[in-house]
Design the sequence.
């Protein structure tokens, strides 16, 4: 054996011998070896949709890294100063120390503008990735038992991400962010009875006060990031504890995970993906301008930026307020601003409450209390998928309504007509989206059943003795049949018993009747998957070629539109 082919165990090398003592000391007291050996070989499944959560994680890391850089030069003070810097149009203009330091970072600190823009783009990507990740979890049923707590943690991360993004958006104290703060001040004031007291407590006096920027700064760099880090850690620990969900497929069951181990495969891929995310945000920060604060100027409470819009993830809350009619009431010499409180405070609260309780609502409807580690294809839960699309549609209408003035200007439309379209559409469009999505899901279910029972189109045309032409179908491979039939069968619904064995009225009969009605609605029109007998019968039928001289081999998967054999 040559010298290059010899292998020396690491514990026998010089470095290994020197490290053996300290490592052994730690292992004797902390038991690190057993924990590391178990978790570093943890298996994770492979699918592109699982990267959505990783994008959110790595963009959060980018936010932390760039945020540390920005803290060295940003000054969170509302003290009025006179500007004398590189941006000549503002020389001699009075502004807050916070806005001046933002201008200094943008124009005088080497690489400051690049880091600012990377930070802002990473924030937008963080929220977008979280929303996409939550949608993936929702549409695939990944929140079902035992992951309800992890879903609640995700809802908490989403809500805190919105607050963190808004806090960072407000820190430069420019005219645009100040307009956004004024909007939030109106939301706080609209809370009945305690609104004005809360405003004085948060802003340190009459808006804008002198304390809001320092307070937002401490929340932005310390309080909220600490909570986010704790929730992210808990989210990851529960993911490892419960094991990662996986898509149905050959060899995949509710009791195993098919994929790659943490080391070396998954760790290498995750590390590489971090650099992809960092590079992508750096590219956007270098080439795409975002939040040019020098265009807006310093904040002045007597001014409002024309066409001002919040960051995209907060646009739906402003849209809800713009759609709401001007309803106000006066009780006991207090004005109750329902036109702000109901859509803004009530809308935001309702969104997170509905998201939080949905797993428990669905569990009550279905009565399914089993553990689930296999994901559902969205088409196999048509009502849930339709509800999700309806919610997305309502969100989209509210988001578009947040820019009704811009839309009216750009498309030369009457703003009042446009607002009424959004008001009606907020209730009508989601219903239409629900019905269309449900029918699409049921149609896809029927297509899957047809592929299982009638096979796939091979592209081979046969002519009968009578002169008719038909295309031969071949049975799906067993692996694809398994994938298409891995979901549960539709349960048999039974009417709730109105009396017990002794003829006495059953307790909770009203609740059970309600549950039965909702359950019928949930499973109505859902197509059940073919039985094993149906599949075997279809295979026998498809395997009989009526003496055709050309037999279809196992490798044949049909032909493309150009007649070239393809992989099915």
Sequence:
């Amino acid at each position: 054996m040559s010298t290059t082919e010899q292998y020396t165990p690491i514990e026998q090398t010089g470095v290994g011998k020197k490290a053996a003592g300290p490592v052994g000391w730690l292992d004797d007291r902390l038991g690190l070896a057993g924990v590391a050996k178990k978790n570093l070989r943890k298996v994770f499944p492979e699918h592109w949709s699982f990267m959505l959560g990783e994008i959110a994680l790595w963009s959060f890391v980018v936010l932390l890294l760039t945020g540390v850089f920005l803290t060295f030069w940003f000054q969170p003070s509302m003290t009025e100063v006179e500007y004398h810097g590189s941006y000549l149009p503002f020389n001699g203009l009075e502004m807050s120390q916070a806005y001046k330091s933002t201008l200094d970072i943008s124009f005088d600190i080497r690489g400051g503008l690049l880091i600012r823009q990377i930070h802002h783009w990473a924030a937008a990507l963080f929220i977008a990735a979280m929303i996409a990740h939550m949608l993936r979890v929702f549409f695939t049923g990944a929140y079902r038992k035992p992951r309800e707590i992890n879903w609640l943690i995700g809802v908490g991360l989403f809500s805190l991400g919105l607050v963190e993004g808004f806090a960072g958006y407000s820190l430069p104290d420019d005219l645009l962010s100040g307009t956004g703060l004024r909007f939030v001040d109106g939301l706080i004031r609209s809370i009945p009875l305690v609104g004005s007291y809360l405003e004085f407590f948060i802003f340190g006096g009459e808006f804008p006060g002198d304390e809001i920027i320092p307070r937002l700064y401490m929340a932005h760099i310390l309080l909220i990031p600490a909570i986010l880090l704790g929730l992210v850690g808990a989210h990851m620990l529960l993911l490892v504890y419960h094991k990662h969900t996986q898509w149905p497929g050959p060899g995949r069951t509710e009791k195993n995970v098919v994929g790659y181990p943490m080391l070396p495969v998954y760790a290498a891929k995750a590390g590489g993906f971090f650099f992809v995310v960092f590079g992508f945000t750096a590219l956007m920060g270098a080439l795409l301008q975002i939040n040019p604060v020098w265009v807006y100027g310093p904040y002045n409470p007597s001014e409002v930026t024309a066409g001002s819009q919040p960051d995209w993830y907060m646009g739906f809350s402003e849209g809800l307020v713009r759609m709401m009619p001007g309803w106000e009431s006066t009780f006991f010499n207090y004005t109750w601003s329902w036109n702000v409180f109901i859509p803004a405070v009530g809308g935001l609260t309702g969104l997170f409450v509905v998201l939080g309780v949905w797993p428990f609502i669905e569990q009550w409807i279905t009565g399914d209390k089993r553990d689930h580690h296999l994901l559902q294809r969205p088409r196999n839960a048509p009502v849930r998928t339709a509800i999700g699309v309806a919610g997305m549609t309502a969100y989209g209408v509210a988001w578009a309504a947040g820019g009704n003035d811009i839309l009216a200007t750009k498309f030369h439309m009457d703003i009042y007509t446009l607002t009424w379209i959004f008001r009606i559409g907020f209730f009508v469009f989601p219903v239409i989206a629900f019905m269309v999505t449900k029918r699409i899901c049921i149609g896809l279910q029927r297509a899957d059943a047809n592929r299982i029972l009638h096979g796939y189109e091979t592209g081979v045309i046969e002519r009968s003795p009578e002169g008719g032409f038909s295309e031969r179908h071949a049975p799906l491979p067993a692996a694809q049949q398994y994938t298409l039939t891995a979901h549960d069968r539709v349960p048999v619904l039974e009417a709730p018993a109105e009396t017990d064995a002794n003829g006495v009225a059953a307790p909770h009969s009203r609740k059970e009747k309600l549950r039965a009605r909702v359950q019928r609605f949930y499973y109505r029109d859902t197509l059940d998957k073919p039985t094993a007998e149906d599949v075997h019968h279809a295979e026998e039928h498809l395997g009989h070629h009526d003496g055709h001289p050309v037999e279809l081999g196992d490798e044949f998967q049909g032909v493309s539109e150009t007649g070239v054999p393809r992989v099915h």
In short: The two ends are 48 Å apart (CA to CA).
